[in-house]
Prior knowledge:
Layout: H1 3-8, E1 15-18, E2 22-26, E3 36-40, H2 52-73, E4 77-81, E5 91-97, E6 102-104, E7 107-109, H3 128-144, E8 154-161, H4 168-178, E9 181-189, H5 191-198, H6 206-214, E10 221-225, H7 230-237, E11 241-245, E12 258-262, H8 270-276
Parallel strand pairs: 8-9, 8-11, 9-10, 11-12
Antiparallel strand pairs: 1-2, 2-3, 3-5, 4-5, 6-7
Amino acid sequence: MPQVTLKKFAYPESLIKSYQHWDLLLRPEQPTLGSMVLICKESVHQYSSISKEAADEQSLIISDIERVLKKRFDYTKINYLMLMMADPDVHFHVIPRYESPVEFCDKVFTDKQWPNQPSLANELQLDDIYQQELLKTLKSDFISLESKETTKKYRRMYTSGCFDIFHQGHLNILKKTKELCDYLIVGVSTDEVIINSKGRPPIIPFEERISILEANRYVDEVIPQVDKNKQAVVDQYNIDAISVGSDWKGKYPPVTCEMVYFDYTPNVSSTVLKQKLNITPK
Length: 282
């Protein structure tokens, strides 16, 4: 996973949507309103080296991007810039172009370079409140693309954890959760969250834990868990229910969605595995 490029563009805070082979981020510097960065998760430095699966998915993502930006801001054109000099990982700058001014949150934004080529050196200078509102709005718009028709009990569910040494118990919870919903979002605790809560770093680094979950066939989307604010996740991702182990009954933070409790797989836990491997900190 191209972590250097991701972090340059403020990942995970700037994440709009994580696909199987790509991450779509809100560009921290906005040359035009709604500018994004699409970064391939594969560790490749040539566009011809991406997998067929990534190439096929990219066309679907481009369709999502154009549908969202057209409906939200009615862009005139979109420029896709592949710039792989300073940042060699395969990625694209997505720059919507506007012949006329566009309004967002009672403020008017102008594409000052129109009709010439975009200049990434020019920024709209969005205040933090506008940047955060833009990110929240686009996340919601991408969520709305998903079908609302469902034959399962829930449309969207969420579960989270450290996933530090992935084991059968984790797999069982993911499988059971996916059986109840159309779309499963999994939150993976960052290294910082684990250090703050447990007083030690994880055995498996965050980037590797993310990759493991992204490769799981029961998981539709993986997001970083940067704190313990579950209600914020419920609101931001329109979660219908959260699944968690049964030992959390009566202890889980209050949320406005439904809760689903699963019994843990007997004799399987990260702590037990670490003790067997003699890597549990003393």
